[in-house]
Amino acid sequence: MKVKKIRLIALAVAFLVFIAGYRMLALRENHQSQTKADGQKIEVVVAAQDLSPYTTLTKDMIKLKKVLVDEETKGYYRKPEEVVGKVCVSNVFQDEVLTDRRLAEDNAEVLGLSSRLEEGKRAVSINTDLEQGVSNNLRVGNYVDVIFTGTLKSSVQGSEEGIPAGLAMERIMGPQNPANAQIVNDSVGNEFSVIALQNIKVAALGNSFSFDSTKDYKDEEYVSVTLEVTPSQAAQIALMKSGEGKIQLALRPQEDSTVVNEPRGSVLKNYEGN
């Protein structure tokens, strides 16, 4: 009986020791886990205010803040200079950690063509065929002149007799005007052409607005050309598109920014020896 009692006491003591050890181990693991979490609290770049899509980040829009990061937190930034100048691709809320999934470079394709336009410029598209588009030889970043060809219909006051384009232009704008224009002859024909715009940048071809130097563009085709122009030039192109005339693009040498200003000429002068 005495031996049995001793055994029961020993079992009870062993059980108590086990419980105490288990609790100590659990407390130690919990402490280590908390310590580890505290060790992952690092200083990262966060939004100092709510940010809308397409916002270009400046120093006053961001700040540094210590936050807990884990294995699922990726693509964060540690330095403000790493994000200044980048653009938000979605809404970002105040104190939200800025990551590479929320930001893009200012010329990234995901931001669309508007992010690539020079300040104050506009993008306007022209439908082109093979001839108008310089036989698919244009590339994004090239420069072109915009030539407009049309028909000028005018008549003598009180008469139905038509006046050739050359004489009509001379009456309205003076001799040899407008500059950079061509007619058939001063006394023949109603057709004319004029270099309406010069040194205009090609912003996009079709829906592509980037140029890849490693890509083979030999068989690349497009049916529209988007030009980067001023607001007034955009209005001029819209007017040219609205009439019966035709727009032709002339490719310029890439480094040639010369602006031509020549008096009105005549196609038939080539046959007159002049």
From TrEMBL:
<dbReference type="InterPro" id="IPR017592">
    <property type="entry name" value="Pilus_assmbl_Flp-typ_CpaB"/>
</dbReference>
<dbReference type="Pfam" id="PF08666">
    <property type="entry name" value="SAF"/>
</dbReference>
<dbReference type="InterPro" id="IPR013974">
    <property type="entry name" value="SAF"/>
</dbReference>
<feature type="region of interest" description="Disordered">
    <location>
        <begin position="254"/>
        <end position="274"/>
    </location>
</feature>
<protein>
    <submittedName>
        <fullName>Flp pilus assembly protein CpaB</fullName>
    </submittedName>
</protein>
<dbReference type="InterPro" id="IPR031571">
    <property type="entry name" value="RcpC_dom"/>
</dbReference>
<dbReference type="Pfam" id="PF16976">
    <property type="entry name" value="RcpC"/>
</dbReference>
<feature type="domain" description="SAF">
    <location>
        <begin position="42"/>
        <end position="104"/>
    </location>
</feature>
